[in-house]
Amino acid sequence: MAVNVDTGARTRDAATEPALGLLALFWVILARDLRVGLRRWTDASNSALFFILVVTLFPLALSPKAEQLRMIAPGVLWIAALLATLLSLQLLFRSDLEDGTLEQLLTLPYPLGWMLLAKTLAHWMITGIPVVLMAPVLAITYHLPATALAVLTLSLLLGTPTLSLLGSIGAALTAGLRGAGVLLVFIVAPLMLPVLILGARATDLALAGEDPTGPLYLLGALLVLAVSLAPIVAAGAIRVSAD
Amino acid sequence: MLAGAGLTLWRGTTCLFEDLSFRLPVASALLIEGPNGAGKTTLLRVIAGLTQPESGHVTWQGSGFRQQVQSGRLRLAFSGHSPGLKPELSTRENLRFFAQLAGLPARVSDILEATGLDSCADLDVRLLSAGQKRRAALARVLLSAADLWLLDEPQTNLDTAGRRFLEQALGTHLANGGTAVVAAHQSLDFGAAPVTRLALGS
User: Fold this and answer.
1) How far apart are CA B176 and CA B191, in angstroms?
2) Is A13 inside any structural domain?
3) Would A15 be classed as within a structural domain?
4) In chain B, what residues touch A9 (CB-CB under 8 Å)?
5) Per the domain annotation, does A235 fall within a domain?
6) Does residue A242 have a pLDDT over 90?
7) A41-61 helix and A22-39 helix, angle to the nearest 10 degrees
8) Using an 8 Å Cβ cutoff, are B102 and B145 in contact?
9) What's the pLDDT score for residue A9?
């Protein structure tokens, strides 16, 4: 073996532009995390299976009466979605910390919050989108009318990314701790309550034939807030975890 | 010039280092030596900005280290205990990811060949031997075109040819005006470059 590789070292006096633009950076990280996530599909499918299980157990345990099922459907589906998100959160940064790739991200000249946002989006695409897609199918068994199904899906589409983003804060705080599963749940579950309330409320309103746009707008506002603030908080927390 | 001034760090009730200072000119190497548990890895992480020291600071060319990294004036390659590669992806995919981040995607196959990894480039990293993982980590350092290499026990698990390659790569890096900080408890030949030795735990 001969070293004929230019190691490329040189002294830089002036500030040089980072090699990648922010959008290209976002895409590179998103693509890698999606690829890793699909290779570890058993982990990813756990939360989807859990969601299916919880949602199908309720009619079995309660009653098969249509009006009763219709009444509990928004709450059951939203609680199941929240629990499925909580279940998937531990994987978010833990493996990166363990295999050392997180250290690599920390030593790059790129904004850490932006990279964590890309990672959280990849995590939501792998664990959250299946839940959003399965919810209307499973909700049919609860005798939900078409309008309520549409509002349920929309509220999950707006709400589950917020859950993932809020969860990324807790995942970043507890990434370095052993057996932090319960701690993580206790940290993030209270933060997730507004999303749960608004999501279930929107579906409830649609079910009662009323206008659900109010809670849906609020869910959208929470999503915008979470996208802009959660990665910054998570970035601060992950530096502590990696220390 | 890489410099550390007044670095102090405690782990629990043990003082790893206190008021530690060093100065390292460009194109030279700093060899951190010491027995197990002396704080070699921790000092390397402090220099990389991954661990905050209790007091003191690290500077590059006279200004704060983190600032220099964030502004792109200092390109840094860090290789710690763990290889820093995703076990679910192949060596090629891992290296391509870091090459994209460094903005140098064309170098991947050259570097795979140079590090002797081309035969197992498409295997998942989790299937590689410990020595091959170490080579892959070295490949990641090589392709980052960094000014400063921070290597933690880089010879671990490498065979004789791998060690020779590592020493040659370090020699080339230093001859090209690069700087390196290496934590090692085994001897390492840096070629003609000036080496500063820093003994911890004494």
Assistant:
1) 13
2) no
3) no
4) 145-147, 173, 176-179
5) yes
6) no
7) 70
8) yes
9) 53
Q: Is residue A6 part of a domain?
A: no
Distance from the Cα of residue A154 to its chain's centroid: 16
Q: How far apart are CA B113 and CA B90, in angstroms?
A: 15
Instruction: Yes or no: say if B200 and B40 are a contact pair by the CB < 8 Å rule.
Output: yes
Asked if B59 and B52 count as a contact pair (C-beta separation under 8 A), the reply is no
Report the domain count for chain A. Answer: 1
> A47 near A87, Cβ under 8 Å?
yes
User: What are the distances in angstroms from CA A19 to CA A117, B110, B179, B184?
Assistant: 19, 20, 21, 31
- Residue among B71, B82, B179 minimizing CB distance to A15: B71
**C-alpha–C-alpha distance, residues A77 and A131, integer Å:** 10
pLDDT tens-digit profile, chain B (202 residues): 899 998 999 888 888 888 999 999 999 999 999 888 888 999 999 999 999 999 999 999 988 888 888 888 889 999 998 889 999 999 999 999 999 998 888 788 889 998 889 899 999 999 999 999 999 999 999 988 899 999 999 998 999 999 999 999 999 999 999 999 999 888 888 878 888 888 887 6
Q: Which residues of A touch B142 (CB under 8 A)?
A: 5, 7
Helices B130-143, B160-175: inter-axial angle, 10-degree rounding:
10
Place of tokens 């075109």: B145
Q: What is the ipTM of this complex?
A: 0.91
Note the pLDDT tens digit of each residue in B159-179. Answer: 999 999 999 999 999 999 999
* Best residue of B1, B86, B124 to probe chain A, by most A CBs closer than 10 Å: B86
Q: What is the pLDDT of residues B94-106, one digit of tens each?
A: 999 999 998 888 7
Which chain B positions have a beta carbon within 8 Å of A17's beta carbon? 72
> Please, how many CA atoms are within 13 Å of residue A40, restricted to the half-sphere of its CB?
22
d(CA B24, CA B69): 17
pTM (2 d.p.)? 0.92
Domain that holds residue A102: 22-242
DSSP reduced 3-state for B70: helix
* pLDDT digit string, tens, across residues A49-97: 999 999 999 999 988 888 999 999 999 999 999 999 999 998 889 889 9
